[in-house]
């Protein structure tokens, strides 16, 4: 974080949300619909976080809330979303190829193929969407509330708590022209993914593999380590009558000969090569160097994939302007979701404050992990969104909330983040109305 600078203007809100990804958008819509005056701060020009800017423009099968469903139906109405179904592809390489089919209803995407379902050969469905459609619909939904302001291309860089470290008094943000503004709010929500706001305030976070002693997780190793879920750089391809051919790389470039492709059979597709760089590269090399190296890998990967029959009529349209980061700092919250919650599921959880439901496998890419299915859906307690300590007006709704590494590898899906944001936004609005701390509302 950078030091404070004089602010040219001061803004007031009931709820200030930092980060306009899935969690931030869900929080902003929910809080504004409850009548709260909302300011949403986003450093990029497009709302949608990893989905819209890292081109992971796909909602994996699994539960979603009413805000996600409404966004889907609005995106579909403008040709920007659809439910994808697995299709065959002419290559022996490992490849997921999920293309939008008009025949598949949204409800098909809400349930995973759990272990018992495989015997019945039920195929899971996912949702594909266009980045600009997500951004357009999110802005429409916020504008319709009449009480939400979006500050895009604006970067949070400084936080000021009170002396007792119980409240966030204000934050400083900088726009694309270098102008600095101070934002004061009654409740703040950190939806940055990297939990930048919580870290700037001195909230405790953890990074990497949890030792078994931390949560007594059966699958955790005896000792922790700085091993992180891998980074992906996705790219967009579009059909062309005379597609430009990607030249072979001049020097040898290592890349995974695999792909997870979503989109439209005769239209835009997003290519996710799965792991592109080790997760730890973000800390060893820095963000800009990861961007540079990952672009080389993308171009080498596309040169390879363009030889597959289903892709020969396509050309590279755009490389994602943002890295697809699966894992970074995680909050030490009032409660930390862990393997016992994920494997035990709702039938075995005793939490009185569950606000989100998920059922994705524990999915660790390129970090010594595997794909561990869960047996049933599990719940996420509201306490996972409240930092440990005495914070009264701070919530965290993003992949960096209170999750162990194992749990985070299951929780981090976009529709789950929208659910977290939905809950956080409603909680924040309730706290504002009641003049109460965020841990004193009726969950």
How would you concisely characterize the structure shown here?
The protein has 443 residues and is an alpha+beta fold. Helix 1 (22-33) packs parallel to helix 5 and helix 1 runs parallel beside helix 12 (414-434). The chain starts with 8 loop residues before the first strand and ends in a 9-residue tail after the last helix.
What would you note in describing this structure?
- This protein is of the alpha+beta class.
- It is 26% helix and 24% strand.
- The strands form six sheets. It has an eight-stranded mixed sheet.
- The model has no long low-confidence stretch (mean pLDDT 94).
Any descriptors?
443 residues; 7-stranded mixed beta sheet; globular; 26% helix; 24% strand
**Gap between N and C termini, in Å?**
33 Å
List the uncertain runs: none
Proportion of residues in helical segments: 25-40%
Please provide the count of β strands: 23
Q: What count of helical segments does DSSP give?
A: 12
How much strand? 15-25%
Radius of gyration over all CA atoms, rounded: 21 Å
Order of adjacent strands in the largest pleated sheet: 3-6-4-5-14-15-13-16
- Overall mean pLDDT stands at 94
The shape, in one word, is: globular
Which structural class do you get from the secondary structure elements?
A: alpha+beta
Largest sheet: 8 strands, mixed
């Amino acid at each position: 974080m950078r030091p404070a600078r004089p602010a040219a203007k001061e803004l007031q809100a009931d709820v200030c949300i930092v980060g306009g990804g899935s969690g931030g958008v869900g929080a902003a819509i929910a809080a504004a619909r409850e009548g709260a005056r909302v300011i949403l701060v986003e450093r990029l020009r497009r709302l949608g976080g990893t989905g819209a800017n890292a081109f992971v423009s796909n909602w994996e099968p699994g539960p979603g809330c009413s805000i996600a469903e409404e966004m889907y139906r609005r995106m579909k109405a403008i040709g920007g979303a659809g439910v994808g179904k697995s299709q065959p592809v002419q290559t022996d390489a490992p490849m997921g190829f999920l293309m939008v089919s008009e025949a598949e209803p949204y409800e098909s995407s809400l349930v995973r193929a759990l272990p018992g379902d495989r015997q019945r050969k039920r195929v899971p469905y996912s949702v594909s969407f266009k980045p600009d459609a997500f951004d357009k619909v999110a802005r429409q939904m916020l504008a319709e509330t009449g009480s939400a302001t979006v500050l895009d291309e604006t970067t949070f860089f400084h936080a000021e708590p009170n002396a007792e470290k119980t409240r966030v008094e204000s934050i400083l943000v900088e726009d694309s022209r270098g102008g600095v503004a101070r934002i004061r709010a009654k409740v703040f929500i950190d939806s940055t993914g990297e939990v930048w706001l919580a870290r700037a305030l001195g909230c405790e976070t953890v990074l990497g593999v949890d030792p078994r002693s931390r949560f007594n997780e059966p699958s955790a190793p005896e000792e922790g380590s700085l091993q992180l879920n891998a980074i992906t750089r996705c790219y967009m391809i579009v059909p062309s009558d005379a597609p430009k051919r990607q030249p072979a790389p001049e020097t040898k470039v290592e890349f995974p000969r695999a792909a997870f492709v979503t989109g439209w059979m005769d239209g835009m597709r997003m290519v996710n090569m799965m792991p592109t760089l080790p997760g730890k590269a973000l800390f060893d090399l820095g963000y800009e160097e990861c961007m540079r190296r990952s672009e080389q890998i993308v171009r080498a990967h596309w040169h390879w994939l363009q030889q597959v029959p289903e892709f020969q009529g396509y050309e590279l349209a755009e490389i994602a302007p943002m890295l697809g980061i699966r894992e970074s700092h995680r909050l030490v919250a009032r409660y930390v979701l862990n393997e016992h919650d994920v494997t035990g599921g709702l039938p075995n959880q005793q939490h009185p404050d569950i606000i989100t439901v998920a059922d994705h496998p524990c999915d660790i890419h390129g970090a010594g992990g595997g794909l561990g299915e869960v047996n049933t859906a599990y719940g996420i307690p509201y306490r996972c969104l409240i930092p440990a300590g005495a914070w009264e007006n701070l919530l965290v709704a993003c992949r960096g909330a209170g999750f162990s590494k194992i749990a985070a590898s299951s929780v981090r899906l976009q529709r789950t983040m929208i659910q977290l944001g939905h809950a956080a936004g409603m909680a924040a609005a309730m706290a504002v109305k009641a003049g109460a701390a965020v841990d004193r509302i009726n969950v």
